[in-house]
Fold this protein.
Amino acid sequence: MAQTFTIDARPHSLGDLMMLTGTFTNAGGSAGGDITLPDHFSKILAAGHNGNAASAPVVTTEIDATVGTTVTIVCGANVGGSWWAIGTR
């Protein structure tokens, strides 16, 4: 099974920037996955994550340079936590 993610209901506006937050969960041995946000951003400028205390640490967070609206989280199997992304609308 793959990574799943949620988006919190209330985005944060900062002038012409927006910040989204949410959670991610890897199930069934998955080692990460994509958080796709093209409905919210035209370009993601920064993103990050926090693994939950019961999980192994998350390895990396990457922004897809080709698409610009996808965040990839690479982590250990069965890891969950929270994520954030800031970008332009």
About this structure: The chain has one domain: 4-88. The mean pLDDT is 81. The first strand starts at residue 4 and ends at 7.
